[in-house]
Design brief:
19 strands
């Protein structure tokens, strides 16, 4: 779009949603910089009627929209110019919470904190699985295939029923929701015929307007624990012990394994608290862990069930991790970790709250994150870690990471922390691109990256057949390329 069409399009969109639903001030848009350019503006419709009109006006103007469930500072923005962020944050109604059948139906702007607070106010015995940030959108976690810390950690699996709007303004309900008098929209995922919900995750094919999600009933008993180890290479031993416990569902939750710097950041500490410059050596990382009462790596798990059954599983877990020399198995906070333990335990027991700090605050307040995946296997986990640590170090970054083991795979979240400056952003992007390429070369694909890295991640997966299939679906659903993926 040229400048005149840009201004005219934003004027028309503002007339639709009101002045309070449009952001055009460059200062207010600055936190959403993609590394290429500022977005032209942010448009926030209140409901599906406004949303359909926004899509029609944007399409007529030739605009490109990037839908986001909630536009917040530091938002992931596609690495291209002349885009408008479509902020669904004002569509934030909790439409239903059913305690008997343990599900909810929410609009895309609803956050984990908002959902948890309503459950608490109503005194419902349901747990919310939060991937870590209370003010993240419930719908966004599903669309990005994020994972959490309870047995309902796999949000993609626990999603049931979707409503979405296509580029032409048509509303589609998936699964049993496509049947007008269905009684099972949030109970049976598939309906009849092809199951299409997955097409709209990590995609640019439509705008999600409602998401159904299964919630975990509060169990009669639970036992949360941590296992902390001193050696850098002990990560492999932790994963080798954990693997069979996960496969056999002895430890059913989304188990987190975090390195000492990640836990220091979650405890509210930052890099400058530890002195020195440059990426920390192994001994310095270990000392950072010791400063908060932990080792080089710490694993967090939880057991659930009947009061007589949990102690049986707990005995199995203790015996299994006792095989790791020097491992400490904890059921309460170690000295100096009270806040961290309260947050970790709360997340595993379905509560939603803030940690004392965020990983991105470790070195400057900003981060670029990547998400490779590996088997829950010691040798493979160490191979990925060694590769990632070395590349990060060459670019001047500490390795700050957390691994989440769900079912048979481990999703790794690696943070490249920097000060938010253009130079820091470029250094992080250069490092992330090298990491993505090297990890793919070693057999570790990405499960989620930020939009600025989407092309790099996509290139590691592409083959002629899958690329052509994606292109055919895009042409069918969004021939004018109205949507950009988030």
């Amino acid at each position: 779009m040229d400048a005149n069409r840009q201004a005219a399009a934003l004027d028309a969109l503002e007339a639709l949603v009101g002045a309070d639903g449009v952001t055009r001030d460059p200062a207010a848009l600055a936190p959403f910089h993609s590394g290429v350019a500022l977005p032209l503006g942010i448009i926030a419709p209140r409901d599906t009627e406004q949303l359909a009109k926004v899509l029609a006006v944007a399409s007529e103007a030739g605009a490109a929209l990037q839908p986001v469930c909630r536009a917040v500072a530091g938002q992931e923005v596609a690495a291209r110019d002349k885009i408008i962020l479509l902020d669904l944050g004002r569509m934030n109604e909790i439409l239903e919470i059913n305690e008997d059948l343990a599900y909810c139906l929410v609009e895309p702007g609803v956050t984990f904190r908002q959902l948890s607070e309503q459950i608490g106010e109503r005194g419902l015995k349901l747990w919310v699985d939060c991937p870590g940030e209370p003010d993240e959108s419930v719908a966004s976690a599903f669309l990005k295939r994020r994972v959490g810390y309870t047995p309902y950690a796999d949000h993609y699996l626990m999603q049931c029923g979707l409503e979405l709007m296509l580029a032409d303004g048509r509303i589609v309900r998936t699964g049993m929701g496509a049947m007008p008098k269905s009684t099972c929209w949030q109970l049976f995922k598939f309906g009849y015929g092809p199951w299409i919900d997955g097409l709209f995750t990590q995609s640019d094919l439509g705008v999600v307007t409602k998401v159904g999600l299964w919630l975990m009933p509060q169990p009669p008993a639970a036992q949360s624990f941590a296992v902390t180890v001193q050696g850098e290479d002990d990560l492999g031993k932790l994963l080798d012990v954990l693997g069979p416990l996960k496969t056999n569902m002895v430890v059913p939750n989304g188990v987190a394994v975090a390195n000492a710097l990640h836990e220091a950041a979650r405890s509210g500490k930052v890099r400058r608290d530890f002195g020195g410059t440059g990426p920390m050596a192994a001994g310095e990382v270990r000392k950072a862990g010791e400063s908060i009462g932990l080792g080089y790596w710490t694993l967090y798990g939880s057991l659930y069930g009947l009061p007589d059954n949990v102690p049986i599983a707990w005995s199995m877990v203790q015996d299994a991790f006792a095989s790791i020399k020097g491992a400490r198995v904890l059921t309460a906070a170690a000295a100096g970790t009270e806040g961290l333990w309260a947050w970790r335990k709360g997340m595993m027991l379905g509560s939603v709250g803030n940690a004392l700090g965020r990983p991105s605050a470790w070195a400057g307040g900003s981060s670029l994150d990547i998400g490779p995946i590996s088997p829950v296997d010691g040798e493979e986990g160490l191979r990925l870690y060694d590769l990632s640590r070395d590349i990060s170090g060459r670019h001047g970054f500490d390795f700050v990471g957390e691994t989440n083991a769900v079912w048979r795979s481990a999703q790794h979240r690696q943070y490249l922390c920097f000060d938010g400056s253009p130079a820091g952003s470029k250094r992080a992007r250069d490092c992330a691109i090298e990491l993505i390429d090297a990890q793919a070369g070693a057999g570790f694909g990405q499960t989620h990256v930020e939009p600025a890295l989407a092309a790099s991640a996509r290139a590691t997966y592409e083959s002629g057949a899958i690329t052509q299939l994606h292109a055919r679906v895009k042409r069918a659903l969004d021939p004018a390329n109205l949507f950009l993926s988030a």
